[in-house]
């Protein structure tokens, strides 16, 4: 079960297409928009194996030299990814205006049009290296002003080991001590998104209706993400790979480490999407067990309210429950989890068990008054329930990570 170093072009590539991470195929700190050219074009239904690169180890405050950074932590030079070295060497970002994340893409999916949903199925996630980094940096995280103590940045190098037949992340009890604390890996992509309309590339940190840095740890192998298409061809991208993350991501980052992801991209036409889920602005996750609507807002309380509204709307659209009954069901049976509180826009997601509705006949989407006054006719969306789009941050505000 040991991890094979997956340098570009080496190892198993199970997808119909292979997309490397390189200076020509990634964005660093910003996300694609309508004006960006696709680096790969595929037919709907095809799979793509995509190399992703973690930003940890390539950032400026880490020396912008992943070879030196990781070999300084005891990693053999041959185990440092050559595409990470290339990206750090050849690309630059504005450390005050741009985010930290590296995303691979965009990928044009034939036939995807605004109004459709892009369905992204996570087929396989392969760790590319046996190590990662967990950071509390730049005075950010859940305990701003408290941690880190006396330091500007804390980055914890975290090896991955095989123990009792499983891969685990390993931490010491005290700095420099033996690795006796262990936690299981559950790899997922923190960033999965579609290009926004217009010619302004969004900042890579805040998530929005385009998806982006949603950091929902349910997006492991076998899960599905639905995103409303905003531009022709969708122009999909992925990045911010994680080996493990707790809900909340409280210190600022998860166990950040590079993954090779194989994803299937499908297009759900607008009419079919409306019949399946009702109107929503996304993102929407589906696992083997749950439908998972989301709520996004800079204020965590408002993100929670938006998620509840989205969950009520989804239940009404899909199963036809009266509004007060849907609300009662959510209160009794649904967990609302905090995706993260560290990405400018906070995220909440609800886990609705589909099995609970096995005896309910499916219905069409609800009428425009499904959530009372304030709905936009024909959408089922209230002004308060629309997620905040992850646009550019306020001028002069630092979002380094």
- Averaging pLDDT over every residue, what do you get? 91
Query: What is the CATH class designation of the largest domain?
Result: Mainly Beta
What gap, in angstroms, lies between the N and C termini?
32 Å
SS element count, helices: 5
Q: Biggest β-sheet, characterized? A: 9 strands, mixed
Q: Report the β-strand fraction as a percent range.
A: 25-35%
Broad structural category? alpha+beta
CATH architecture of the largest domain: Sandwich
Region (Disordered): 361-401
Pfam families: FmdA_AmdA
Protein name: Acetamidase/formamidase family protein
GO molecular function, one term: hydrolase activity, acting on carbon-nitrogen (but not peptide) bonds, in linear amides
Model description:
The structure is a single chain. This protein is α+β, with helices and mostly antiparallel strands and 401 residues long. It has 2 domains: 17-151 and 183-269, Acetamidase/Formamidase-like domains (Jelly Rolls, Sandwich), CATH 2.60.120; 289-385, Acetamidase/Formamidase-like domains (Endonuclease I-creI, Roll). The chain contains 5 helices and 20 strands. The chain has helices spanning 66-71, 82-90, 270-277, 300-319, 323-333; strands at 17-19, 26-28, 40-42, 47-51, 102-109, 117-127, 131-137, 153-163, 166-172, 179-184, 188-194, 211-213, 224-228, 236-244, 255-256, 259-268, 284-286, 290-297, 335-340, 346-353. The strands form 3 sheets. The chain has a 9-stranded mixed sheet. Strands 2, 3, 5, 11, 12, 14 and 15 form a 7-stranded mixed sheet that branches. A hairpin with a 2-residue loop joins β8 (153-163) and β9. α4 (300-319) crosses α5. The two termini are 32 Å apart. Mean pLDDT is 91; it is low at 366-401. Residues 361-401 are annotated as: Disordered. Pfam families: FmdA_AmdA. InterPro entries: FmdA_AmdA (IPR004304).
């Amino acid at each position: 079960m040991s991890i094979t170093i997956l340098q570009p072009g080496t190892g198993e590539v199970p997808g119909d297409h292979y997309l490397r991470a390189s200076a020509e195929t990634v964005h660093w700190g910003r996300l694609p928009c309508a004006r960006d050219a696709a680096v790969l074009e595929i037919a709907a239904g095809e799979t793509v194996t995509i190399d992703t690169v973690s930003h940890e180890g390539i950032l400026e405050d880490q020396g912008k030299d992943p070879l030196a950074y990781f070999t300084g932590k005891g990693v053999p030079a041959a185990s440092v990814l050559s595409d990470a070295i290339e990206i750090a060497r050849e690309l630059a970002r504005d450390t005050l205006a741009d985010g930290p994340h590296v995303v691979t893409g965009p990928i044009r999916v034939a036939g995807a049009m605004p109004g459709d949903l892009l369905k992204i199925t996570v087929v396989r996630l392969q760790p590319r290296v046996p190590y990662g980094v967990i950071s509390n940096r730049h005075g950010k995280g859940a305990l701003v002003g408290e941690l880190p103590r006396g330091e500007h940045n804390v980055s914890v190098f975290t090896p991955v080991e095989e123990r009792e037949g499983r891969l685990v992340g390993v931490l010491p009890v005290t700095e420099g001590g033996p690795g006796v604390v262990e936690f299981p890996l559950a790899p997922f992509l923190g960033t999965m998104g579609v290009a926004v309309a217009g010619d302004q590339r969004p900042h890579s940190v805040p998530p929005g209706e385009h998806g982006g840095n949603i950091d929902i740890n349910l997006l492991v192998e076998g899960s599905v993400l639905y995103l409303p298409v905003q531009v022709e061809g969708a122009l999909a991208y992925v990045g911010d790979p994680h080996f493990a993350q707790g809900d909340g991501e409280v210190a600022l980052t998860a166990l950040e480490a590079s993954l090779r992801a194989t994803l299937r991209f499908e297009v759900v036409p607008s009419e079919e999407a409306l019949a399946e889920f009702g109107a929503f602005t996304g993102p929407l996750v589906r696992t083997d067990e749950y439908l998972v609507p989301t709520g996004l807002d800079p204020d965590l309380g408002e993100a929670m309210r938006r998620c509840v509204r989205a969950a009520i709307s989804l239940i009404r659209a899909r199963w036809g429950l009266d509004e007060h009954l849907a609300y009662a069901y959510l209160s009794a049976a649904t967990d609302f989890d905090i995706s993260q509180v560290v990405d400018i826009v906070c995220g909440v997601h609800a886990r609705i068990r589909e099995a609970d509705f096995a005896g309910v006949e499916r219905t069409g989407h609800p009428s425009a008054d499904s959530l009372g006054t304030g709905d936009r006719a024909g959408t089922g969306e209230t002004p308060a329930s629309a997620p905040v789009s992850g646009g550019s941050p306020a001028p002069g505000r630092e979002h380094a990570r």
